[in-house]
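Researcher: I'm preparing a figure for a lab meeting and need a structural model of a single chain. I don't have an experimental structure, so a prediction will have to do for now. The sequence is pasted below. Please return the structure as tokens so I can convert it later.
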Amino acid sequence: MSNFNSADIAAFKDVWVFCEQREGKLMPTDFELISKGRDLANELGVNLCGLLLGGEGIESAAKELGGYGADKVIVCESPLLATYTTDGYAKVICDVIEDLKPEAFLIGATNIGRDLGPRCAATLHTGLTADCTHLDVDVEKYKAFLKTTSTMDVDNMKFDEGTHLKMTRPAFGGHLATIICPRFRPQMSTVRPGVMQRAPFDQAKADKVVVEKYPVELAASDLQTEVLEIVKAAKDLVDLTGAEVIVSVGRGIGKDVPTGIKLAEELAEALGGGVVGGSRAAVDAGWLSADHQVGQTGKTVRPKIYVALGISGAIQHLAGMQDSECIIAVNKNETAPIFEAADYGICGDLFKVVPMMIEALKAEKK
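Model: Understood. Here is the structure written out token by token.
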């Protein structure tokens, strides 16, 4: 740390992404962050670098990151990194950052990322914005984002015109908060899985990526914990971020919640093995568990088909599903905002409309 000064912002350059792996396999969030990092690096005119830690042989996974946009992948390989530990990973990451000085460092907001990010930020004496759902450098792009996701008078607001990373995350009451870190580097954020669009894989880029091994200085004495055993437990959770079809329910099922959820399940199945999601109102009411929530304070999804049943379309919900390929809305209120975002809208009672939709889909398959 003697030669590291987080306030000397001129000494920092390039965008980095922490690439999480489990048992040698890269996580989907890595590809999302590399794809977004590519956009940010292009706007800043710098390189994009993936940082990959793991046990012996982890270098073999590095090339794939180039296929999504990484110019270089720094590989830190050690038997002590084969299994994640906070102390081991934080020390190695901070050592590399202190030496090579990236200006931005992105981490997935996974269980590991949420544990790792704050420890690294505190060690490096810089800031961290947690659970981000949007990242921008360019001011005009940031303004365009605000116009579609907030009710603020963007045209009459004063903005920081620098190239600081603008890190947006959900705030209390369903609002958005954007944070910048103008005085320290690296600018760090953990990013919610599923919110960034993954770029198409490019084999030519994968072949060109530079893979660089970094000399790891890590001893068993650096670790305060020892992993004796890894026990995997299966938990029945809905996978919204990976679903191609999602049928979500909102306050509109309130008059008969069990029937409303059952209809959503049947419609999801009829559409091709989809899953059931819900608005914040449905989750807060206890009708669905939190892993079903779609929206600014839930999960951000991009399915091929998104059906909104009895959801009014508050801006916080739209922020979580507006990039779906096809949006179908059923609501008895003809002025519901959801219709503005929908590709197809049906104004009617969902308890009457959905059974007809299910029957029509079943008849189509016969």
